Amino acid sequence: MQNVEQIATEASESMTQSTIQKGDQLLIFVSAKNMDVTKPFNQNYFGPQNGLTNTPSPTSSSGEKLYQVDALGNIDFPILGSISTSDKSLETLKGELTERITTYVKDPTVTVRLANFRVTILGEVARPGQYTIPDINSTVLNALGLAGDLTMYGKREDILIVRNVNGITTKHRINLMEADFINSDFYKLKQGDVIYVSANETKEKTSRLNPNTNTYIAIAGSIIGLAGIFITIFKK
pTM here? Predict the structure, then answer.
C-alpha cells in the first residue's frame, strides 16, 4: 500500500467526524450547580402511570448513564422521552439535549460520549477492516486480536497508529517486541483510531516480483524437462 500515513490519516478523520449509528452505546451525564434538579435526567424515570419511579439505568464509574441507540436510531431519555440520533454527531446531540434540558434546569452541562467505538485496522493482519470495539478500555492488542492477529509478513516492531482528537491528527509507532509499549498513550484505543501493520522485508521483496514469475519458472522447468527427455531419446 502506497501513501500509508495519508490513507490512515484520512480514515481516522472520517471516522472521528462520523454520525451516531444504530447499536451505538452512549454515555450521557447532566450536571449543574444544583445537582438535585438534574437527578431525574441521570436515571430512567417512569411516571406514576406505570407505578415505577426512579429505576436506575446502567451507569459508568463516573455516574454517566448508558443509552443504547435502537434500530430506529432513537434513545429513550428521562423526562424528554424518545430522542432521535439519526444523522447527528455526538456534538450535535449534546447541543440538542442541552437546549431541551435548559427548560427544566438552569445552565445545565451535558456530556455525551461513546461507550463503544469503531477503529480501522489495515495492513498485514488476517482480516483488515473496520471494527466496533465494545469496551472503552480496549487496547491495541485487543484490536489486533479482533483482526485475526498479524500475518507472517507483519512487522511487529512497526505498528502505526493514527489518532484524531478535536481536529488534531497525531501519529505514533509502537514496537510490539518491546514491553514498554504498554506505557504509551496510544496503547489504549480511542474512537476513530487507525492501526496500520507494516509489511516486513520478505513481503516487500515478494511484492516487487512480477506476479507471473512463478508461472514463468514452472513453464521454464517443464520445457527444460521435455528437452532433457528428447535429448535422451535422440541419443538412443
Answer: 0.59
